[in-house]
Amino acid sequence: MIALGALADDVRGGNAELAAYAARTWVTIDMATTEQTATARRNVKKAQKAAASKKTIANMPKQTRTALGKQAAAVAQRKRTGASTPKTRAELYEIAKSTDLPGRSRMGRDELARRLGEK
Question: Domain map of the chain by residue range?
Answer without folding.
Answer: 60-116
